[in-house]
Amino acid sequence: MTPRPEVLAAAPAAAQAGMLQWNRECACLSLDQRQLRHALEVELGEPGLYELVRERNPHLFSALPVFVDAAWLQAMREVVEAVHAASLLPGWRERVLRYAPAAALREPGCAGLFLGVDFHLEAGSLHLIEINSNPGGALLSAALARAQRACCDAMREMVPGADSVAEFERDILRMFLREWRAAGRHGRPRRVVLVDEQPRQQYLYAEFLLYARLFERAGLDARIADPGELHCADGRLWLHDEPVDLVYNRLTDFALDGDALQALRQAWEQDLAVITPHPRAHALLADKRNLALLCDSAALRTLGLDAERAELLQRHVPHTLLVGPDNAGALWEQRREWFFKPWGGYGARAAYRGAKLTRAVWEHIRGGGFVAQRLQPPGLRHVGGEQPPLKFDLRAYAYEGRVQWFSARLYQGQTTNFRTPGGGFAPVLTTPPGSPPDLRLQPRPMP
């Protein structure tokens, strides 16, 4: 199942050096803007989407790929599988549901769609940074993959083919249908509604449109709506005067507690529609307090996880603590070694690198609601010339323990922000196993 630690450390050494050199020296632009326009507007069937992205999201797509050795991608798969195995344990569920919101106590039968499992890979060290239960970017990453060009023969072997991209998109659709059946429904949903607050003002609204087209190509009626447009009546959830069968929940109120979410909360509690991802999925897998358990091999073994998986997780999940009165003093003194995140937060909001903390912010953190995670730096992607390198993180989209796709995000600053020129979603490229890349690169300057 899992490679021995010494094998994982030694096997990728030569190829890893090659991938580092590609990230350091290859400044070729792999994104073809004409192909991206064609992918968004013709292949995926959403006229005008390319211009919408250019106007509203100028830093959504990076023109640079990120190179990662295949051995590290395999390690990411194994970490994802180990997390999934832990989440299925009765002991795990009993433990994490103690601090979960009441909405998470309902068992709907379905897993809750895919996760976004985020990693830092730097200097031969791989670390799971966090887990997201309603990750954005999957269909955008697929569209980006459709628009890649190779600048040399070596890169040509790495660029994903059209068939693999189309299969990923089909896999996303199959995932929704599996959720439908796992929740006890039969046949196919007639109407799918993607729900977020003020969806047309959301940064990733372009992706909402791609999901609507994906559902429509499969013969499903698809709508995009604000939760305030929903209501419950006659034992069903409704969007205005139309019954709703399945809700793709993109809200960041993971417990469905907000006043504007009353209809959705009622539909969840009374099983009036299939709602996914749902509060239980977030509680079991994406609550950041769970990271303090995932990094503790002894605790994981006590809950019933086998020693091999428990040790794998301890190696790859940075040490994480809940901030509280007992450790606040020591954490402040050692703050440069830690990164602080709200356990109920999302999208790096209100997350702080310890070295940047002010006393005022620290007083807020020590008041509760935060975890401290041992600082693990991200990888670096050099862009050529005199420009400073960009940081990158890696995301595995994974459903029920199986990785479906890899993506990367390039940025500057403390966290991913989609405001960095040259940054944004980036494709992850790797050489086929057993075929290290030609390292005789002739880096080209950035245009």
What does the model show?
- The protein has 447 residues and is α+β, with helices and mostly antiparallel strands.
- Helix content is 36%, strand content 20%.
- The chain has helices spanning 5-10, 13-25, 33-43, 49-56, 70-87, 90-96, 138-146, 153-156, 162-182, 205-217, 262-269, 279-286, 291-294, 297-303, 307-316, 328-333, 359-366, and strands at 66-67, 115-122, 125-132, 191-195, 221-225, 230-233, 236-239, 242-244, 246-249, 274-276, 320-322, 338-342, 352-353, 370-374, 379-381, 390-399, 402-411, 424-429.
- The strands form four sheets. Strands 1, 2, 3, 15, 16, 17 and 18 form a seven-stranded mixed β-sheet that branches.
- A hairpin with a 2-residue loop joins β7 (236-239) and β8 (242-244).
- α5 crosses α15 (307-316), α7 packs antiparallel against α9 (162-182) and α14 (297-303) runs antiparallel to α15.
- The longest helix is centred in the middle third of the chain and has 21 residues, at 162-182.
- The chain is globular, with a radius of gyration of 22 Å.
Major β-sheet profile: 7 strands, mixed
- Report the principal-axis shape: globular
Structural class: alpha+beta
Runs in which pLDDT lies below 50 for 5 or more consecutive residues are 1-12, 436-447
Radius of gyration: 22 Å
Strand content: 15-25%
Termini separation comes to 45 Å
Helix content: 25-40%
What is the count of β-strands?
Answer: 18
Number of helices: 17
The mean pLDDT is 89
List its traits:
alpha+beta; globular; disordered C terminus
Write the layout of secondary structure elements.
Elements lengths: L4 H6 L2 H13 L7 H11 L5 H8 L9 E2 L2 H18 L2 H7 L18 E8 L2 E8 L5 H9 L6 H4 L5 H21 L8 E5 L9 H13 L3 E5 L4 E4 L2 E4 L2 E3 L1 E4 L12 H8 L4 E3 L2 H8 L4 H4 L2 H7 L3 H10 L3 E3 L5 H6 L4 E5 L9 E2 L5 H8 L3 E5 L4 E3 L8 E10 L2 E10 L12 E6 L18
Parallel strand pairs: 1-18, 4-5, 4-9, 9-10
Antiparallel strand pairs: 2-3, 2-16, 6-7, 7-8, 11-14, 12-13, 12-14, 15-16, 16-17, 17-18
Helix pairs in contact: 5-15, 7-9, 14-15
